[in-house]
Design a protein that fits this description.
Helices cover 40% and strands 16% of the residues. The protein is an alpha/beta fold.
Length: 339
């Protein structure tokens, strides 16, 4: 296949690109290489892709999702079969500071992707949603078959809007769309604004780490390569209209059009303090902990019900928190050193 991967210089996007190239697909990667976090890390991920022996099957486009002409041109000249849309303005807390960036990238930008798919006969659009759409819901584990209508941040609201926008295009134009609600993704080449990165940097510098909610968080931490395995399985299985959909009792996970959403996570929540213990063990240092109250927009716990992915696509994450954090630390020390 010829696949467009947006956010190809990002954390999940770069791993997805490697995986597609490894299996013989052609990939066009699109990214704007913005400075939300260190652009040199994004460039290093991109360089790693472009140094592959099969990099002749990779093409890179630097463009902004909100640039309608650039996205239209990418689709018009790309000859894509399928699209993996991972580019977005990420981060829950940053949405409190720069809300307009989220609507430009995550709403307007997503519309441009939908329009490109609509007009160029794309066979399947797989796009990133988030566990944050569950918002203030406390029923655990989170299931796609429960509602997700109370997001607590603008970031979460934009991703929930993506799910609804995708449904409208599936309904109006028959575009097969699958949304993936990612639960906390971690691993090598990760984002510097994520907890594991921040903790490792502070611990190695002998500085205290900020532990929010006094350490009483738990998260469904999911290793990046397990996430990518799920993305690939979903990409290869475009949704169809579900025969089980009942318009009198609508199920939020499925539809009578070619659309659906899946949770994609480890389905094994880990206490934040245990996560920190594993990191301390891998680094060989004990962290000084600065216990703080919960941040605005945070939720205490996440836990993914991934039974639909397991039943439909035989998806079962395999990486333990101990192995995943060790892999991250090994990469971090090699990339940044111990200073």
């Amino acid at each position: 296949m010829r696949v467009l991967v947006t956010g190809a210089a990002g954390f999940i996007g770069s791993f997805t690109t490697h995986r597609l190239l490894e299996r013989g697909d052609e990939v066009v990667g699109l990214d704007n290489l913005n400075d939300y976090y260190d652009p040199t890390l994004k460039q290093a991920r991109l360089d790693r892709i472009q140094s592959r022996p099969d990099a002749d099957r990779f093409q890179f486009i630097q463009a902004n999702l909100a640039d309608r002409d650039a996205i239209d041109n990418a689709f018009a000249t790309g000859g894509f079969d399928r699209v993996v849309h991972l580019a977005a303005q990420a981060g829950v807390r940053y949405s409190l500071e720069c809300p307009h960036v989220y609507t430009e990238s995550n709403i307007t930008g997503f519309l441009h992707i939908l329009e490109g798919c609509r007009h160029h006969d794309i066979k399947h659009l797989v796009y990133a949603s988030t566990s944050s759409v569950y918002g203030s819901d406390t029923s655990m584990p989170f299931s796609e078959h429960q509602g997700a209508d109370h997001p607590m941040t603008l970031y979460a609201a934009t991703k929930r809007a993506n799910e609804l926008m995708a449904h409208s295009y599936s309904n109006l134009f028959g575009l097969p769309c699958t949304g993936l609600r990612f639960f906390t993704v971690y691993g090598p080449w990760g984002r510097p604004d994520m907890a594991l990165f921040l903790f490792a940097k502070a611990i190695l510098a002998g500085q205290p780490i900020d532990v929010f909610n006094h350490g009483n968080h738990s998260r469904d931490f999911t290793y990046v390569e397990d996430i990518v395995e799920g993305i690939i399985r979903v990409l290869d299985a475009p949704p169809t209209a579900s025969p089980d959909y009942d318009t009198d009792q609508p199920d939020p996970a499925i539809s009578n059009v070619p659309w659906r959403v899946y949770n994609i996570g480890n389905s094994k929540p880990v206490e934040l303090m245990r996560y920190i213990e594993v990191l301390e063990s891998c680094l060989g240092h004990t962290a000084e902990k600065n216990m703080l109250p919960m941040q605005p927009g945070d939720i205490p716990s996440t836990w993914a019900d991934t039974s639909d992915l397991a039943d439909n696509l035989d998806y079962r994450p395999a990486t333990s928190i101990e192995d995943g954090v060790k892999a991250f630390v090994n990469w971090y020390l090699e990339y940044y050193g111990r200073d």
